[in-house]
Design goal:
By secondary structure, the chain is α+β, with helices and mostly antiparallel strands. Helix content is 39%, strand content 24%. The protein has helices at residues 5-9, 14-30, 67-72, 75-81, 100-113, and strands at residues 35-39, 42-47, 50-57, 61-65, 84-85, 90-93. Strands 1-2-3-4-6-5 form a 6-stranded antiparallel beta sheet. It is globular. The protein starts with a helix and ends in a 14-residue tail after the last helix. Pfam families: DUF1801.
Length: 127
Amino acid sequence: MDTFGDFIGTIQDSTHQARVKEVLNWVSQTFPQLKPRIAWNQPMFTDHGTFIIGFSVSQKHMAFTPEEAGISQFEDELQAAGIDHTKGIVRMPWNQPFNYALLKQMIEFNIQYKADIDKFWRPLKRG
């Protein structure tokens, strides 16, 4: 967790800090093959140099993004769970339980989908 210490230290609210630590630790423990890093001032995890999942915080929520393809793959699950999201971000309010099951599915999807991708981001679909 040393990688994320400075980032976590910038979070003013101690309960938000605790949630961020909990989630990032959970990802590290559940997916030990992923590499933690800070990029664009945000915590994220990569696999063989490719982006898997990134996190951000605001006053109202902790958010994560598995890229648009990772969100669209789970659109039905997000809607069924009533989770606020856009094409690019999933928002988990501070005052609600964190949906680890869905996060796990999204991370597993990205690891599998991007197993043979050698770029940081998914290739853009053309056509």
